[in-house]
Amino acid sequence: MIEGEQLRGDATLVLIEDQEFPPAAVSDNQITLPLPAAVHAGVKGIQIVQKQAMGTPPLPHRGFESNVAPFVLHPTITGSNALIDPSPPPSTKVTDVTVNLAPNIGKGQRAILILNDNSASPPSAFTSLPTISTADANQVVIKINNVPAGNYLARVQIDGAESLLTVVSNLFTGPMVNMP
Fold first, then answer.
1. What is the CATH number of the domain that holds 150?
2. pTM of structure
3. What is the tens place of the pLDDT at every residue in 84-139?
4. What is the mean pLDDT of residues 62-78?
5. What is the count of structural domains for the chain?
6. Which residues contact 175 (CB under 8 A, 6 or more apart)?
7. Which among 8, 10, 18, 80 has the fewest CB atoms less than 10 Å away?
8. Can you count the helices (H) and strands (E) in the chain?
9. Do 100 and 175 reside in the same domain of the chain?
10. Spatial distance between the Cα atoms of 101 and 121, rounded to a whole number of angstroms
């Protein structure tokens, strides 16, 4: 939902990631737009574009454009599976963690995996080096080094936008990944 003033035009569109999307509903003070599947997680800009018919024959051209407003689209981990690299170097345990995401990660986006072991005293955290996605996909494989075996709370950052943990009765409960 986008709120503002003078939002309704002859042909109102919403611009996200250089793509124009028609809203589901438009009034003078509010635009409703279900999040398009083509939009990726991360820090995004959103802009309102009102097209006007010009010329002969009349064709739609950009008329009024709002300023760009930022918003953060947090990724969601929809599942995870940890797999040990079949040939890790002798002194380093490298683990490939496949993270299923919604929305998709885009080609060229940067992903970081953050694992927390809250059962340890003091709690420990492990962060992967950045992985750059090579495709527009609903999953990314992230390598993480030297994580001891155990169950960890998992978060992923996509271009700085971090997934949220599940909370039940004031305790973090997931998503979890089991590191062998």
1. 2.60.40
2. 0.81
3. 665 555 566 888 888 999 999 999 999 999 999 877 777 789 999 999 999 999 99
4. 91
5. 2
6. 77, 79, 80, 153, 154, 163, 165, 166
7. 18
8. 0, 19
9. yes
10. 30
Question: Cα separation of 107 and 99, whole Å?
Answer: 15
CA distance 50 to 31: 12
Whether 171 and 124 share a structural domain: yes
Q: Is 2 in contact with 48 (CB distance < 8 Å)?
A: yes
User: Which pLDDT does position 61 carry in this prediction?
Assistant: 79
Taking only Cα atoms into account, the Rg of the chain, rounded to an integer number of angstroms, comes to 21
Share of the chain above pLDDT 90, in %: 54
Residues 55 and 107 in one domain: no
Give me the residue label for tokens 């574009």.
49
> Using CA of residue 154, residue 142, residue 136, residue 157, what is the dihedral sign?
positive
pLDDT of 157: 96
